[in-house]
Specification:
heterodimer; A: 173 residues; mainly alpha; Butyryl-CoA Dehydrogenase, subunit A, domain 3; 75% helix; 0% strand; B: 169 residues; alpha+beta; 4-stranded mixed beta sheet; 27% helix; elongated
Chain lengths: 173, 169
């Protein structure tokens, strides 16, 4: 084998490895993409913002794929997505304040308007923690790790969120 | 009734109705590219192209009104169908009879209450075929024409709507 042949073979090996990584990433992460967008709609309240953040999350996860520990893909993806969502909200608020305009295009759910209204009234952190706990079954410690806050803070958010929903929806609704 | 049980079912249904474009973005090549592959003299052209694209994109986005109502809501294709009272296979067949053959079944398993009396845990799986059992929670039609449906198989699940409290099909 000549030096040129060896170089070509090495390039082909690298390309194959790259294609393999991409396929592995898509096989593991793609099934969680749509659920992530839906979750972000509930957290951000705006489908367009949710799509934007979900796309950023997907690309960010792809760039970090070689650092993923291989345990819980959904938790890993949601962790990236929720952190980006919080940053997105902060950035948008600053931007809207800077230009003095607010043009939200929030989603509304006519099927269960009371629940959506009560959920929307919670701040994004409380809402996220509550959804991770109630819908996904993550423990307070796990949620604390995902959102990078102490477990006690998560406990407080979840308790406050549940109380607020119970107050708004009533015990028998 | 237990508020927590009801809350899980309603939140799951709410999330299932959230509008979603299920297509993730195209992944970039992971191979390193040359940093200045395009002559720097073309930079103004690219800046103009980006500005024009952004302006056109803003117009397009402004005209997009995404809102996915529940498939059984008044005015929706299957208004009043009461699929919450059907078994998942029956609901799937009903949807197929009405032209909805691309259905994403979101199956919730686990328990609503833990053995120690605390909160139960659940697992969500998405699949294209309906599970045999479970309380059906009707979802919505997505941009791509597919339909999201929830099948709540959790031990202690109550069902929703007209069939709240009925035995799990």
């Amino acid at each position: 084998m000549t030096s040129a042949d060896a170089t070509t073979a090495t390039r082909q090996d690298r390309a194959a490895a790259t294609n393999g990584e991409t396929e592995a990433f898509e096989a593991a992460v793609r099934p969680h993409y749509a659920p992530l967008v839906r979750r972000l709609v509930l957290v951000l309240g705006d489908p367009h913002d949710a799509e934007d953040v979900a796309q950023d999350t997907y690309l960010s996860a792809f760039r970090s794929w070689d650092r993923f520990d291989g345990t819980d893909v959904r938790a890993w993806l949601y962790t990236i997505g929720l952190r980006l969502a919080f940053n997105h909200r902060r950035g948008r608020r600053r931007w809207l304040a800077a230009i003095g305009r607010i043009e939200p295009r929030p989603w509304s759910d006519p099927s269960d308007p009371d629940l959506w209204a009560a959920l929307s009234a919670l701040d994004a952190s409380t809402r996220s923690a509550l959804l991770l706990n109630v819908l996904d079954g993550y423990t307070q410690a796990e949620i604390g790790g995902m959102l990078q806050v102490p477990e006690g803070t998560v406990a407080s958010w979840i308790s406050r969120g549940r109380a607020a929903l119970r107050r708004e929806l009533g015990p028998d609704r | 009734m237990d508020h927590d049980d009801d809350l899980h079912g309603r939140l799951a249904a709410l999330e299932a109705r959230a509008p979603v474009d299920t297509t993730p973005p195209a992944l970039p090549s992971r191979r390193r590219r040359g940093r200045f592959a395009v002559p720097i003299a073309l930079a103004p052209v690219f800046v103009l192209a980006i500005v024009a694209t952004a302006a056109a994109g803003a117009v397009v986005v402004a005209n997009l009104a995404e809102e996915h109502e529940g498939i059984q809501n008044p005015g929706q294709p299957l208004a009043g169908a009461h699929m919450e009272c059907m078994s998942p296979p029956d609901a799937d067949a009903f949807l197929a009879d009405h032209g909805f053959t691309d259905v994403d079944w979101q199956v919730e398993t686990g328990t609503t209450v833990a053995p120690d009396g605390g909160k139960g845990s659940s697992t969500t799986v998405h699949q294209s075929t309906p599970p045999e059992h479970g309380h059906v929670i009707p979802g919505s039609i997505q941009n791509d024409g597919s339909v999201i449906m929830v099948a709540d198989q959790r031990v202690g699940a109550t069902g929703v709507g007209d069939c709240f409290g009925s035995p799990m099909p």
